[in-house]
């Protein structure tokens, strides 16, 4: 199994170490090959809001080299982990920058159907408050990319670094992640056979009805036509063999 991990910060603090615990637990379930992305190092430029990716094509993004390299790592994996510290009650700025760069791939534009059978895991750490909102922000992107399942874990560590966290808290994080890792692993290994979520299908259908009405020279409309999604060819046709327990 291949898993790509994207860190919203570069310091090896509480977020990084929590992910290492998650990795340890995942490794107890099976053999996993990891690929890691560190932000902002691997995507240093902020989205300029030029709309070029959305209106002209992703090859026109001024940061195409970096963002396409991150996307390639996401596409080559079975599962993707997004991890961020909580800053101002939400994701870190480098992580938000990645989410902005991914917007052209949302179901509202030109989603890559390879994401439709992938699983995601979002993880955040805060001193005392904000993991719920942060995980919601992270999960929203994976939902709108069409991921099949997304799991989440947030922890208030009451510390500014991993070394400041009590042993009791670390034991609790490890125990929580043991359970979460087992669920994530099971879904990822069985990802092709899991039922598509009604929510994702609903967004897809809503977008299909909207995109149908676009002008014929619209890039998104032409992409959807090319996929056959406006001509009765649904990515959700191949259905349910078994459901996760
Ligand atoms: C700029 C900045 C903003 C922060 N904002 C919050 C916050 O809104 N809520 C909170 O509980 N902790 C906040 N924190 C604390 C971190 O979220 C927390 O210590 C986290 O575990 C740090 O992760 P790291 O060790 O991976 O860097 C903030 C820290 C920094 C540096």
UniProtKB/TrEMBL annotation:
Record Pfam families: FMN_red
SUPFAM superfamilies per UniProt: Flavoproteins
Gene3D superfamilies in UniProt: 3.40.50.360
Record-linked InterPro entries: Flavoprotein-like_sf (IPR029039), FMN-dep_NADH:Q_OxRdtase_AzoR1 (IPR050104), FMN_Rdtase-like_dom (IPR005025)
Domain named NADPH-dependent FMN reductase-like: residues: 1-156
Gene Ontology terms for molecular function: oxidoreductase activity
Official protein name in the record: NAD(P)H-dependent oxidoreductase
Organism: Halonatronomonas betaini
